[in-house]
Amino acid sequence: MSPKELDELDYKILSELMKDARKSVREIAKAVNSSPATVHSRLQKLIKKGVIRGFIPLVDSSKVGYPVTAIIMVSAKGEMLRKLEEELRSIKNVIAIYDITGDYDLMIIAKFRDMEGLDVFVKDLLAREEVVKTLTHIAFNVVKEDLRLPL
Amino acid sequence: MSPKELDELDYKILSELMKDARKSVREIAKAVNSSPATVHSRLQKLIKKGVIRGFIPLVDSSKVGYPVTAIIMVSAKGEMLRKLEEELRSIKNVIAIYDITGDYDLMIIAKFRDMEGLDVFVKDLLAREEVVKTLTHIAFNVVKEDLRLPL
DNA sequence: CATGAAACCCCTCGGCC
DNA sequence: GGCCGAGGGGTTTCATG
Q1: Does residue A2 form part of some domain?
Q2: In CA terms, which of A52, A148, B41, B89 is 20 to 30 Å from B105?
Q3: Is A43 on the interface with B (CB under 8 A)?
Q4: How far is the CA of A38 from the C1' of C5 (A)?
Q5: Number of neighbours of residue A76 by Cβ within 10 angstroms
Q6: Do B78 and B133 reside in the same domain of the chain?
Q7: Structural domain contains residue A83
C-alpha cells in the first residue's frame, strides 16, 4: 500500500486505454506526448501495482447467449459471509458482488443463459445455511453496463 | 439483426480476448489454431456486428480516486423514464443502469470521489419531477466487479 | 525515471484459393 | 469464407543522461 500515487502521465495513459484498451503503446505515447518506452514501463507498473487488473472486451451479453440479467439481494448470517462471498466470486455467471448497507447484506449481479439457470442459482443460494433470505429483481433491459470512469 | 450467429471460432476468439484483450492477433491465432488474417477479419466483423462494443482496462476504482460505490433504486413515473435513462446514461459516474422488476423501476450503480458526490447525485435525482422516490445502498466493499462471461 | 535506437515481432491488406 | 506474403508499423530492451 505504499508505492502508490499516480501522476498525471499515469492518468493520461489510463484515459487513453479507456478509449480503446487495444490501442498501441506508440499511439498512446503520441497522444500523451511521451515516448513508447516510457508508456510501456508505466503500463507495466500500473499492472504490477494492481491499478490495472486486466484488459477485457465489452461484450453484448445478449448476443453471446446470456440474455437474462438478475440482481439478487441476499441476507446472510454474518459469520459465514466471507466464505459465501469467496464461493460466489468464483462463479462465472456472477459479474458483480457488493457488500451493502440496508435490509440486505449482499447484492449480486449475475447473467444466465435462461430463466432456469437463474432459478437454479437462487435455489442453491437459499439452500445454504448461512443464507437467510433473498430478493431477486430481473433486469428486463440493460440500459448501460460500462465500468469506465472519468479520470 | 440478421447476419448474426456466431460460430465456434468466434467464441474461441472472444474467449482469448477475455483472458487478455490486448493479446495480439497472432497470439490469438496460435491459441485458436487459425491464421492471423482470419482472426483479424473475424475480429472486425465481431466489432461491426456489435458483439464487441469496445475494449477496456479493468481498473481498481478505489485506486484512481473513486472509493465510493452506491446502488440507487429509483421509482419513476413511466412516461419520462426513457428521457431520464438517456440522461443518466451519459453521466460518467454511472457504470450500470438496469430496468428492473419489483418495487422500483430502475437500478443505478455509480461511483463517486466522495460521499458528497453521491449526495449531490441523489438530490439531483429527487429534484426531478419524474422521480417518485429513491433508495440508496452504499457498497462498503466491492467483492467482485468483472463483466467477463463464460463462453 | 525517461529516452532513443535497434532488434525483433506484429498488423493489415491485396491477391489468391 | 480462409490463407499467404510483404511492407509498414509496433513492442520491448538496453545503454545512456
Answers
A1: no
A2: A148
A3: no
A4: 14
A5: 20
A6: yes
A7: yes
Do B79 and B125 share a domain, yes or no?
A: yes
| A31 plus A74 within the same structural domain | no
| Partners of residue A97 on adjacent β-strands | A108, B144
**Same domain for A118 and A90:** yes
B27 has a chain A CB within 8 A of its CB: no
Find the CB nearest B137 among A51, A102, A149: A102
Of A98, A101, A137, Cβ closest to residue B142: A98
CA atoms of B115 and B120, how far apart (whole Å): 9
Identify nearest nucleotide to residue B3 by CA to C1′ distance.
Answer: D1
CB of B70 closer than 8 Å to CB of B123: no
Task: From first to last of the 151 residues of chain B, give the pLDDT tens digit.
Answer: 335 689 999 999 999 999 999 999 999 999 999 999 999 999 999 999 999 999 999 999 999 999 999 999 999 997 889 999 999 999 999 999 999 999 999 999 999 999 999 999 999 999 999 999 999 999 999 999 999 999 8
Residue A32's domain spans which residues?
A: 8-49
Please indicate, yes or no, whether the overall pTM of this predicted structure exceeds 0.85.
yes
Domain-located, residue A121:
yes
Question: How far apart (Å, rounded) are the C-alpha atoms in residues B151 and B149?
Answer: 6
